[in-house]
Structure formats: structure tokens, C-alpha cells
Amino acid sequence: MDYSGKQIIVTGGASGIGRATVLAFCEAGGSVFFGDLNADGAAETIELAKGLKGDATFYALDVTDEAKIDAFAATFHESHKQADIVVNVAGWDVSMPFMDNDSDFIRKVVAINYLGPVYLTRAFLPQMIEGDGGQIVNTASDAGRVGSMGETVYSGAKGGVIAFTKSLAREMARYRINVNCVAPGPTDTPLFGEVPEKLQQALIRAIPMRRLATPEDIAGSILFFASDSASYITGQVLSVSGGLTMSD
Q: 7-240: what CATH class?
């Protein structure tokens, strides 16, 4: 896949799946404008992108703050007519029983994992509609498809991302804007590292391929949905889980 000349937005690019996605697009020639709260991690991503075919630019972004999302988009549009590809990756959770979730935690999970993609997408869509085309790829989770013990609110938020993807795909098809969703299973990211060791091992044993996904596994699926090869695909959800949820 060749993304030369493509202007690409990625959230959560300082680590994990977001970083792997930024680097994969850069390797394929794309120009990536990415956001994250973690400036140190973003600097590492920029360093890793040096020497690749494309280029990466970082701008601080808090996806829970609508005004900062708008500022992020405005900064990009100062020098670019439109984004060709928008990828929502930023996410967060802490595994715990639902009854231990307080109101602040619930609001934070929903703000990052659901409202963030909603507001970020809205900030870039007017120019994409005017330009008559583009791709939006949302990152949900298999937790949003089949549920996940200890991640009830997160599962609900990711389920919302899936429904948002499908509904927006219907609205945007007339403008030749494809909207699809990648749903990772357990993936070797900093977020997964916070899961208790006992649960980590149980999840790995349950995966038919007997390993976690790598961030690069997920990035590959994101790049597919963002490519011309997926030009007639919209409103779809792709589980990338090593077969963990193949029966659903």
C-alpha cells in the first residue's frame, strides 16, 4: 500500500496501537499529523519515524476536551485543505468490577473512548465532505462486540463506537467517505500491561493462536481500511483477535 501524498490524522500516536499506526503510514509514504497527551512518548514516535518514506508531525491533544479537539483540527487546516484519512485510536481503561466504578471514572472512560472519536471526527468532516471523499477508521475493541469482565463501561463505550461507525457510514456514503472500524482483541500495549497478570495469562490461553496481538497486527488492519483496496467497504467491523471471538 502506498500513501504518498495522503494527509492522515491519528489520535493516540505516542504509544501502542497509535504509534504503530503512525509508523506504518509513514513507512508507506504518508504524511501523518498525530495527537496525544504524552509529549515524551510522541517525541519517541517522531524519532522512530525519521528515515521512513513519509513524515510525522505531533500536536498536543486531549480528546476529552472539545475545544482542544477543535484547536487540533484548526492547526491542521491552517496548512492543509483537508484530511484524506482520519484514524481514531486513543483509548483508556482500568480493569475493575463495575460496582467499583465511581462517577468520575465512568465519565472519563466514556469521554476518551466514545465522545473523543465523535468530536474528533466531527472536527474534520466538513472539509472531507467538501473534498468529496476520504476514509475514517475507528478503533473499537472486541469488548464492544462481546463484552469483557471488568471492563463494563469500557465495553459500552466501545460498543458505542461500533454503532457510531455504522450509522455515520450510512450518512457519509453519498460523499464517498468510507467509515469502518477495527476491533482489537487482547493486544500487547501499555494499557494491557496494567491488567492483572493472572487475567493476562488466562486471556492468552483462550486465544486460539496462543499469543497477544502486537500493535503492528492492528495497524495493518487499519491501513487496509484506509486504502483504495477497501474503497467499496463501509460500515464494517473487523475483529483482530487471533480467533478469540470467531464464533460471534
A: alpha beta
